[in-house]
Amino acid sequence: xxxxxxxxxxxxxxxxxxxxxxxxxxxxxxxxxxxxxxxxxxxxxxxxxxxxxxxxxxxxxxxxxxxxxxxxxxxxxxxxxxxxxxxxxxxxxxxxxxxxxxxxxxxxxxxxxxxxxxxxxxxxxxxxxxxxxxxxxxxxxxxxxxxxxxxxxxxxxxxxxxxxxxxxxxxxxxxxxxxxxxxxxxxxxxxxxxxxxxxxxxxxxxxxxxxxxxxxxxxxxxxxxxxxxxxxxxxxxxxxxxxxxxxxxxxxxxxxxxxxxxxxxxxxxxxxxxxxxxxxxxxxxxxxxx
Length: 290
Ligand code: C2E
Ligand code: MG
Ligand code: MG
Ligand code: MG
What we know:
- The chain is of the alpha/beta class.
- The protein is about 45% helix and about 20% strand.
- The protein is built from eleven helices and ten strands.
- Strand 6, helix 7 (about 185-190) and strand 7 form a beta-alpha-beta unit.
- Helix 1 (about 1-35) crosses helix 2 and helix 3 (about 85-100) runs parallel beside helix 5 (about 125-135).
- One magnesium ion binds near residues 176 and 197.
């Protein structure tokens, strides 16, 4: 009987896993269709200078509105795109679209584009970036590429070569989600970053009593400053958080306090009204999300 029970349980789990795999491969197929049918969009979230409170640029963020399922969480489909290699195609589209959009915005505005580890490992990336810049007719320094620490897990020499090649194009490089991965000071020594983006998990709850996050933010910004790099605090939602990250020296701020990601036409409207921005949001911080 014990054996039967065991077998029953095995079947239960196996059906569960089967259903999960099924759902995933369905979503993967839907993602292929989404690419073919142009369902993907790029949204643009304001990035603001602490010193001037002016908009300095936007981060381009993928959005997918599925005809039946509605909005699919970006983290979820980006993960599938990475696992299946579809990110190469999606990433190229995002890069070209963001550069094209940027060409219609004021000169002092930049765009930041996320580059996945898979794209970073492709030796063709610099040529692709150069081509996107040339086709859009934008100055390379107006494009910032956001890279996460996970790219350092790959071969050292390839990584160094890639950084040098990208830097040689004149684009800016940002280290995204700093503090969440295998953060090593060695990366900061070697890689020619123009900016460190402090992950929102450090901003969340930073204003609450006893939080160590403020000390971490202050240390990262002073280190970045000493190395000649900018810092963006990510995910700033409240006025208290805004005050704190500015006090601790973050040169740039990004978060709902200055605006959610906008569709391309809304972003274009936004810059037509001038580059001044206003912080809008609740005063107090909430408890950190678990
Ligand atoms: P990320 O690059 O760290 O982007 C910042 C994320 O924080 C975005 O989530 C943004 O909507 C969210 N965010 C910004 N301000 C706030 C705030 O005040 N509060 C909260 N709670 N969240 C805020 P999103 O758009 O869901 O994107 C998730 C991740 O998906 C991105 O994290 C990035 O890793 C990836 N991703 C998005 N677009 C692309 C892309 O074009 N290519 C690649 N490779 N990855 C992308
Ligand atoms: Mg990013
Ligand atoms: Mg980030
Ligand atoms: Mg992230």
